[in-house]
Amino acid sequence: MEMELRGYSRPIRPGVTRVGWIGTGVMGAAMAGRILAAGYSLTVYARTASKAADLASAGADLVSSAADAAAGADVVFTMVGHPSDVRSVVLDPVSGVLSTLQAGGVLVDHTSSHPALAREIASSARARGCWAVDAPVSGGDVGAREGKLAIFAGGKMESYSGLLLFGRSLGRPLRWASQGAGRAARLQIRSPWPEVFWD
Of 79, 80, 166, 182, whose CA is between 20 and 30 Å from 191? Predict the structure, then answer.
């Protein structure tokens, strides 16, 4: 049975909002670095821990699983390589984000994946009393480093519009109201899944 969600009302503020980040490939590491530089507390899971060394040096906490990154977080971002990676780090019943994300928490998936998977994740998140936003990006590693990504966000963004503050640290959010619509829009301009996203 899905839990009723009444809107995201937690404050989105540096030093207050606790952020989990999963995926430190070329783009993921740059995006996480911008969130950290904006003053947010950041807990990072990287499949290859050495690729998160710079983030750790800048103050991020490194953990050993996606579930650990989500535990205690208000917002969790994922930026991995393939739909199968998204499914694993989000939906695994033991080590996935949704196994530990607290009710009222938000999952923002920046991976370029499938609209159907975005809807499945949103349904699973709602069942736990959590929010999910599918928000694939365009702009490459340069856009990630410079905070100039186009962000194709799908989901009920009006319920937690404060998340746009994160989007502005990363680039320019472009909003679609329905779950999976951001993915569908992104797929219109996308090449095959990039190997550089996941570590």
Answer: 166
